[in-house]
């Protein structure tokens, strides 16, 4: 028997949007009034947590966007992909306030068109995030396993074009969301409005529309990208182990690598480790959510709706947290990002700007010339022995040294 909650959760593979709860005692998913009260308290707590995650995540990813665009030292191929991932995280988090407002009000108040925009933007950027991680994994594979060939194609321009292509693919894959999402009237005590996806009735692989689309999103948006990430990093790990063994063998035979090669190899390892940690955190945040979704899809009977609601909301927060954690990981694992963050918050004093000054004409005294030339006694007789051209040079040097000394006294 399929419950109303089961159908709702299958639709909400990104976030719980408008369950039709109007805040009254007639809550459609709870058979026990005590569960309804506990659910309301839990929903309020989750809303506060989501608000905090949204603020931290938006601030952090906007900072990533700023430092990558602002500082020329950050204009690298890897950072272009990180910039695209940050934009996807921003688009994913920017709609969290709408989700919170809907949870508090108990209905969707923003209209049909924005309901379509909400679902489209959220789902497209969720898919784009996983695709960007695949690209970053493939980039590490080519940079380490095929370094000579990758140098020819790994440019910031090609990286930017590839990111645009990824977004276009995500838009095409998620077009059904825009087509079928919209406001839906819920038949309950107050006939409230929900923003949801109204899938057409169909049976594919003995699955209805919502279940079939949830499975589609799991395969295309999670399972397949994760398989590609694991494959790329498995090959990278094998190459790094073989190169480490080669370096150890060369060291044993006293064939040391050049400092330039060592620095390049160390940089590759650091960037590879940073991307690897980002992928691991992504898996930790999203795997529990998709496991629950597949359980809902293939479960014959969902009896304990309250437990599923609590679990779904908790895992939803974990998914949002992934987008907020990434900027922190960059600061912890990349020295360049850490320095760029510090530079972004460092104020540049206005008086550091160069100012125009009037040149000073200073005639050097005897002590100045003596310090510049090393002559012990600067008498008229000793100066006569110095050629005229050298005297002119000494006068210029002495004038410069006197001006510099006077400026130091003024400071």
TrEMBL record:
Keywords: Cell membrane, G-protein coupled receptor, Membrane, Receptor, Transducer, Transmembrane, Transmembrane helix. One of its GO terms (molecular function) is peptide binding. The chain crosses the membrane at residues 37-68, 80-105, 117-138, 159-178, 213-236, 271-291, 306-333. GO terms for cellular component: neuron projection; plasma membrane. Its main location: membrane. Coiled coil: none annotated. It is a multi-pass membrane protein. Residues 60-330 form the G-protein coupled receptors family 1 profile domain. It is found in: Cell membrane. Belongs to the G-protein coupled receptor 1 family. This is Somatostatin receptor type 1. It comes from Hypsibius exemplaris (Freshwater tardigrade). The lineage of its organism: Eukaryota, Metazoa, Ecdysozoa, Tardigrada, Eutardigrada.
